[in-house]
Amino acid sequence: MKNIDSILMTPALFDQRERHRRSLFSYTWGELIPKVFEDVPKYYRPGNIIASFGLWELWVWQFIRTIGLNPGDKALDVCAGTNDVGIRLLRKQPAAFVTAIDRSKEMQEVGQSRAGKYGVHIDSVIHDAHELPFPDNSFDVVTLQAASRHLQLDKVLPEILRVLKPGGNFYHCDMLKPGSRVVEWLYLRFLRFSIAWTALIFGSTEASRNCNDYFKDAITNFYTPEELSEVFRLVGFTNVTCKKSIWGGMVGYHKSQRANSDKS
Ligand SMILES: C[S@@+](CC[C@H](N)C(=O)[O-])C[C@H]1O[C@@H](n2cnc3c(N)ncnc32)[C@H](O)[C@@H]1O
Prior knowledge:
264 residues, alpha/beta, Rossmann fold, 7 strands, globular, binds S-adenosylmethionine
């Protein structure tokens, strides 16, 4: 059974969906999520591995495999958290340069110490992703993993397009709304169980407990892999491709490009 709302995205529909997400989540995004990420850094990676029964490692490994990075390339990892993506990129291509941007200084502190342990250098910028503090045409590659559900896509995606060089690539990966109602039903129950299970092991703060319903609602109000491809095209990306994960589209890997013809 297909989700009936999984239809072609239009500018009006995208605008309506983003306004709806904002009306539901502005408070959570602005007040609760920053508090959640003050506490999460110390157990972020083991927490993800336990919550996903190990699938997190496979998810990230698959994402990194999709990313092409050449010697000398400049990459920006948006919502970099504890630098999981940046570290793996530099181990794959040590002659690249990686900048991490995240609003949480606590996540980035852990990210910097992890980068040090792996012997790689990552520039760190603490800033909101909705306004990227970089000039136009700055990066060959931009990555965004496991965070777009918490963002206003109609603001962040044009910013990513702006800071990409013409011909540069944007790689995106997140938990998406499955295209099938059956998969969605199973998936949301799994999510509820795994959040409770992880909270039991690592303990949870009041902010995290207040987000229990949010994590489910953020997905039911997010985009299916096909809708997200349309969103990227609407914003102005070209050559948009999407590889769904083995779990019925629960995780999608998108690659899109800033057109070369933008060159001035
Ligand atoms: C689930 S973590 C993902 C971290 C990393 N990308 C990864 O895959 O391990 C989400 C991250 O997004 C960051 N974040 C959420 N909203 C943000 C915003 N508006 N601007 C910058 N960072 C934000 C959080 O601080 C957190 O570090």
